[in-house]
């Protein structure tokens, strides 16, 4: 299985775009092989000239190999994928015209291949390119048929050639139009898929991030805590801190709601700048924040909060009077072994209440942590 996968990577490469192009190439090759098989049967039945048939087989095989090299080494040639597709389709049409000239009474059947080539185009070409290619096929086939009936009217009766050309032109034009519609449909589906995935990304952000502070919101923090609870290795310490800005109502009342919002934004930025790499800070509600410090002994957690208090005290908030200092109170709890985060948050909440009661602008350890 592994060897097969390695062989596929060797042949197809690892790049998804390259793989897609080579898959189309492989599908074309299967078609070539079927056509070669049928051509050989024609030769066996005496319906086609063997030399001419072998010439066409050699031409088809060389072309298929050349296209493989061209696609595989496209990192060097840097051809656009539609340029490659147009050249491949043009090559296949030349093969179909050639097959027509050497196929004796079965020649009309060869024209179905030209139609198949145009159908293939819907996967790789724009509608206009497909139409141009069909027009080129009609002109190429028309000139060939005219030349054949003019030079060998016994094998290529003019009336038969004329009618065959009419059928072919009709089939090619309608197939080109239909495959053009299909490519438009594919392009629309692709665009809608991209729009949907953008919208999904926006929804994800809206569902997890607080719009005002750009911190994660309470819902997402609960998910983070759940994950951390499951990951929590026995003995590893995690701390929880509930942080509440002091006298925030007074800020709102004195400076207005917009300045209150600015305080929340500046506080969040200052608080975030004080964290260690793995600490997670969330807006828990209003002017309250929850900080989770994984793998942190309580002394380290306290140090983070003190650093945060210094930064918050030093921050300059647009709209606030000079000298108006912002502070916060925090309740800090170490999550006990086997304890749920919900219980640890409850203990942190009680400690926060004590911090407020004791005069604010301080960090209070939850009861069990007080030495
Ligand atoms: N500007 C603004 N204010 C908010 C927001 N969310 C909550 N608030 C206000 O925050 C204030 C919280 O007031 P309180 O709960 O009394 O707390 P406090 O004034 O900070 O007092 P202590 O916490 O006891 O220090 C209320 O006036 C809310 O309206 C918000 O997103 N923006």
Automatic annotation (TrEMBL):
It comes from Massilia suwonensis. It catalyses: 2 GTP = 3',3'-c-di-GMP + 2 diphosphate. The keyword Manganese does not apply. Gene3D superfamilies: 3.30.70.270. Residues 236-368 form the GGDEF domain. It is an enzyme of class 2 (transferase). PANTHER family: DIGUANYLATE CYCLASE DGCM-RELATED, REGULATORY COMPONENTS OF SENSORY TRANSDUCTION SYSTEM. It comes from the Bacteria. GO terms for molecular function: diguanylate cyclase activity. This is diguanylate cyclase. InterPro entries: Diguanylate_Cyclase, GGDEF_dom, Nucleotide_cyclase, Rev_trsase/Diguanyl_cyclase. SMART domains: GGDEF.
